[in-house]
Amino acid sequence: MKYKAVIFDLFGTLIMNFSYSEYESALVELATILGAPPEDFTQKWLGSSRERMTGILPTPRANIEYLCQELGINPDEAQRKQAIQVTMDFTVRAMVPKTGAVETITQLKSDGYKIGLISDCSGQAVQVWKNTPFAPLFDVTVFSCEAGMQKPDPRIYRIATDKMGIAPEDCLYIGDGSSHELTGAREVGMHPVLIRDPDEAVDAHYIEREDNWDGPRIAYLREVLNLVK
């Protein structure tokens, strides 16, 4: 076998990046529910991304409470619960497998590869992940909000390989290039591949991506099956 494991990113790789217009709409809805100025709320939400991704704000409740405190607002409990539900519902809508994703991973497992995930995500994404078709297919999952660090920190890649009991050099890494994840994977010895889905929304919402990536690229997940031959 050319590799012993295939490790995937989540957003933009296994599932589509949601559009910025969808994201903005959801934030305006949250602001309206909580009685906050939409522009101020959006700024504070985007500004607290690191806290959500590294587990400082580990739950939707903690995130909403933090934003209320920062904005100096005091919505009642019903409003807070409604806002929490909106964030969860949005995550559920976002966590839909790309066409062929489940089938590709199932084939890789059948062929004897270990399957891993390294994702920069919030606690609510972890909650939703458990109910997706992906969950039973993965041998190892590393979520930034649980690890307390984000890509491209070399430690987050090594957590995955250590759990798998294999060397980074034996891993193929597939990601859309957010957070310099491909460079990070290469620096620890993995074999990174950029995936850029042509069906992705024009205004896809993402953290700055490695658009100048000089390594291998694919368009669809099923192409991974050719890479491991």
Annotation, overall tally of beta strands? 6
- Provide the low-confidence segments as ranges: none
Order of the strands making up the biggest sheet: 3-2-1-4-5-6
Q: Per DSSP, what share of the residues sits in E-state strands of 2 or more residues?
A: 5-15%
Mean pLDDT score:
94
Order of helices and strands: EHHHHHHEHEHHEHEEH
Estimate the global geometry from the Cα principal axes.
Answer: elongated
What labels would you give this structure?
11 helices, elongated, 2 domains, Rossmann fold, alpha/beta, 229 residues, six-stranded parallel β-sheet
Account of the protein in words:
Helix content is 45%, strand content 11%. The chain is an alpha/beta fold. The protein folds into two domains: 5-17 and 96-227, Rossmann fold, CATH 3.40.50; 20-94. The chain has a six-stranded parallel sheet with strand order 3-2-1-4-5-6, with helices on both faces. β2 (114-119), α7 and β3 (140-143) form a beta-alpha-beta unit. α1 (20-34) packs across α2 and α1 runs antiparallel to α5.
